[in-house]
């Protein structure tokens, strides 16, 4: 049955990719996710002088649970600032866009597979829509919320996108579900 869902899988991936483009570039749901530092030039120069390698960093940082319990670390934590910083190479937009499409393709395939375990051919649109939209919402939203809890990133745009993505997947599979 999974082979009968190859067209909705591909169509979902394309539709999700296009919806992602719209949310970022047209509706700009993530416009306020990242703020510019007021003293950006000074900050960039300080980071350059530190020769920070690519990676993700937490500050203040520690290398062990014992160090985290130390008075020195606790004082740094209490005095602030505290945060997370990721240093990455120059962005290769083609690669990022390709990986994003691949992500949507893999998710669409996984949702299609999951649906074949629960829904029989010939099921009504609303049954397919509800199942896939719910599974899609759990897929797209769950990791974002947990990440925001720990790292304080803004998630409003991600919540809106997740709902939209779930509806898109539910509609496409609901409309193209194989007959009995």
TrEMBL record:
Q: What is the protein name given in its UniProt record?
A: Uncharacterized protein
Write out the entry's keywords from A to Z. Answer: Membrane, Transmembrane, Transmembrane helix
Transmembrane annotation, as ranges: 6-27, 97-119, 125-143, 155-177
């Amino acid at each position: 049955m999974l082979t009968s869902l190859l067209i909705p899988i591909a169509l979902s991936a394309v539709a999700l990719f296009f919806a992602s483009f719209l949310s970022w570039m047209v509706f700009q749901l993530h416009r306020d996710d990242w703020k510019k530092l007021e003293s950006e030039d000074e900050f960039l120069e300080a980071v350059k002088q530190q020769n920070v390698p690519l990676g993700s960093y937490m500050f203040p940082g520690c290398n062990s649970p014992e160090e985290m319990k130390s008075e020195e670390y606790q004082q740094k934590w209490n005095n602030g600032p505290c945060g997370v910083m990721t240093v990455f190479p120059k962005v290769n937009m083609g690669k990022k866009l390709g990986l994003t499409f691949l992500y949507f393709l893999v998710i669409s395939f996984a949702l299609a597979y999951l649906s074949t375990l629960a829904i029989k051919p010939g099921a009504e649109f609303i049954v397919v829509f509800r199942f896939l939209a719910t599974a899609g919402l759990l897929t797209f939203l769950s990791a974002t919320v947990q990440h925001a809890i720990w790292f304080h990133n803004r998630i409003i745009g991600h919540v809106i996108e997740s709902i939209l993505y779930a509806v898109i997947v539910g509609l496409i599979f609901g409309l193209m579900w194989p007959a009995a």
